[in-house]
């Protein structure tokens, strides 16, 4: 089982959502570097084309494909899954990374429309993708699912009320789906990154006074790098984590998360 340490994901096929930038792109790079064939996706065609060009140049046209996919749209999800099967012959791995956060402030100040959008993208799409992908993983004899949550899902952040709640919901989804799919040899785990230097988190990391304040709560005194999360995601998809399921790995530089 551990014979190919250099390429632990050789022969595996992965779908990674929101994978043209930030943590998703870093996960894509790590998975394909570890041997997987990958299908990247984003809701913007231009982003897919740019990321695809970079990845194919480094890893080859046959190992990396990409599609436009708005995870809240059923037709987009179905197309993503079917095209992955058509091109690569099956699916072994799902990395659900898509997320949105169009507001900030107290959870009680969140408008219903915004609340619905956050949960539609951050939680419902992860659930529906899991339902839609699971039969294909089962047909392959097993596989791995990884949800990308956040430190805010474990220890809510004051100005990210609704977002924090949605990311907490992913922790529960991880536990429940892991139990449901264990008998099918499908492992389900979750990564909860701390504050990582990405475009998504730029409002936190690029505001000098705010970033200085936030760094006081990070014992290693720096923000994370996308590749540090990508390597954890790939680990959770690999044989090296074959006895891990239903777990949440917090990667936050020491930010308070649990006892």
From TrEMBL:
<keyword id="KW-0560">Oxidoreductase</keyword>
<protein>
    <recommendedName>
        <fullName>Dehydrogenase/reductase SDR family member 4</fullName>
    </recommendedName>
</protein>
<dbReference type="InterPro" id="IPR036291">
    <property type="entry name" value="NAD(P)-bd_dom_sf"/>
</dbReference>
<dbReference type="Pfam" id="PF13561">
    <property type="entry name" value="adh_short_C2"/>
</dbReference>
<comment type="similarity">
    <text>Belongs to the short-chain dehydrogenases/reductases (SDR) family.</text>
</comment>
<dbReference type="GO" id="GO:0004090">
    <property type="term" value="F:carbonyl reductase (NADPH) activity"/>
</dbReference>
<dbReference type="InterPro" id="IPR002347">
    <property type="entry name" value="SDR_fam"/>
</dbReference>
<dbReference type="InterPro" id="IPR020904">
    <property type="entry name" value="Sc_DH/Rdtase_CS"/>
</dbReference>
């Amino acid at each position: 089982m551990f014979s190919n340490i250099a390429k632990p994901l050789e022969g595996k096929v992965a779908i990674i959502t929101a994978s043209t930038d930030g943590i998703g792109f870093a996960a894509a790079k790590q998975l394909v570097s570890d041997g997987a064939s990958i299908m990247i996706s984003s809701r913007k065609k231009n982003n897919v084309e740019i990321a695809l060009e970079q990845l194919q140049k480094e890893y080859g046209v046959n190992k990396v494909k990409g599609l436009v996919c708005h995870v809240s749209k059923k037709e987009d999800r179905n197309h993503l899954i079917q095209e992955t099967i058509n091109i690569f012959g099956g699916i072994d791995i799902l990395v659900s990374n898509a997320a949105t956060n169009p507001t900030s402030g107290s959870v009680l100040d969140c408008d219903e429309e915004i609340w619905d959008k956050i949960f539609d993208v951050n939680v419902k799409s992860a659930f529906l993708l899991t339902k839609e992908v699971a039969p294909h993983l089962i047909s392959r004899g097993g596989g791995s699912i990884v949800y990308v949550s956040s430190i805010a899902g474990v220890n809510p952040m004051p100005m990210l009320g609704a977002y924090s709640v949605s990311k907490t919901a992913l922790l529960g989804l991880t536990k429940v789906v892991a139990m449901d799919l264990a008998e099918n040899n499908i492992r389900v785990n979750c990564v909860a990154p701390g504050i990582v230097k990405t475009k998504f988190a730029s409002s936190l990391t690029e505001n000098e006074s705010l970033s200085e304040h936030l760094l006081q709560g990070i014992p290693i005194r720096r923000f994370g790098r996308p590749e540090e999360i990508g390597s954890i995601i790939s680990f959770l998809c690999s044989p090296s984590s074959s006895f891990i399921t239903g777990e949440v790995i917090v990667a936050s530089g020491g930010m308070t998360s649990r006892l």
